[in-house]
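Entry: AAA family ATPase
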Amino acid sequence: MGRHPEVTQDARELVELATTEEGVGELLRRGLDWVSRVVPFDLATLFLLKEGRLEAVAARGPLANQAVRKHSLQLADFPSLKHALETRRARAFTEEDHSHGDGDPFDGVLDLPAGHACMVVPLCAGERCYGVLTLDRAQCETYAQPVVDLVEVYGQMLATALQGAEQRATAERLHRQDHEHAKLLESQLGGDSEGILETSLSPVMRDLSLRARQVAETDTPVLITGETGTGKERLARAIHRWSARADQPFVSLNCAAIPAGLLESELFGHVKGAFTGANRDRAGRFQMAHGGTLLLDEIGELPVELQAKLLRALQEKAFEPVGSDKTVRADVRILAATHVDLHQAIAQKRFREDLFYRLSVFPLRLPPLRERREDLPQLTVFLLEEQAKRTGRRGMRVMASGLVRLASYDWPGNLRELANALERATILTRGQELTAQSFDLPGERVREVPAAVPVEDTPAPLPAGAKVPTLAAVQREHILRVLTLTRGRVYGEGGAAALLGLKPSTLQSRMKKLGIARLEGFTAAEDA
């Protein structure tokens, strides 16, 4: 190698090439260019092995032509080539080999003289042999053994580069599959996440929706906080759909639902043999979300020992799969959600302060349902429609008395509990109207009503000696409850008049007659 000062540099470049993301075509082209620097040839041909045939994929030199580039060989017809692959050793052919061997691979394609210089170099790496490199010269001489040994090393390096390209192609195919799978899950599970925000009557929710839309246009990390069941994942999906990454996957990982020992693999993936049961390479959520959005749900439950690795992945946008020393990069927009008080968790040394500040660049707090009761009409419509897609029970609606009943409950389970209550009521109700009697809320017992009797018209039994309220008192109480539900709003969709099935003017007249003028700071005639 001393006679070729450029060899060391070429070898270094070829080793580096084996770890780059070049395509197979570029690898082969550059591989042949390097060979031309250290060994003379009139034709260098790369054959790849495909189902027992060697098919030419690249050729260099004065003798290279279209016939050579389309040439293919049946491996079984050339024992010398098969032997080179089996032994993984390069070999220079002599004139005697040509005379008594299995013939010239280019017979009928090129008119080369008998005894011309010829070399066959196997391209093998790991358990695979990818093909052979053949070198030919029109001169009648034999390649020297030091040159053969040198090109054999090149062949091994080129095979390693081919192996890397094949693995990257496989990883890319799996990533595309994961990408499509993630998008399918997102479309099936996501629902109209933004619709539940944009129809809100609550000032707090309208402000939250506006801020979420603004941050969605950036790649800024968002920390979504709120009680269990407030819809943190729905908000995260809405942010994703409002973003420039909407066509890319939305991937979610619930940090509280995965055993601590498996969380690192779920986040960053693993390579074959990384641990017992790791029978193949597996992409993690970061890789699956490449180009899109990753929601780290219940981030407050992430084990402390894994928080440092997550922090590095967020800072450098790079990580190592479990069992691998190779760095993987992923372009991911991070959203995090939790019901845990992270400030308290930091004080208790259960959450890293530096990770908190990395995640909470733009915090969003989802209010509990008890702070946005005015949204109950829209929420019930939305959730019933969402359930109908799954159950097929369409046309269900909550009547005014049902809304009043729902508004009287504090909903510790928030939207999730409301959805469960609606589904339970839908199952138990034969018709399409859900009234106050349709809902069996925790701590309450609802008297069973015969199906033939209209629920709204069924009188509840009164205790002995109980005073029966006047019709005007019942009407006044009912209207006040509905006005409380709509925060004093009378007009428009979702207003008190619409919920009561009255014209706004009729409701205004009745309110005046019943002495209802104002409601907790809201004018009864408010229609905004």
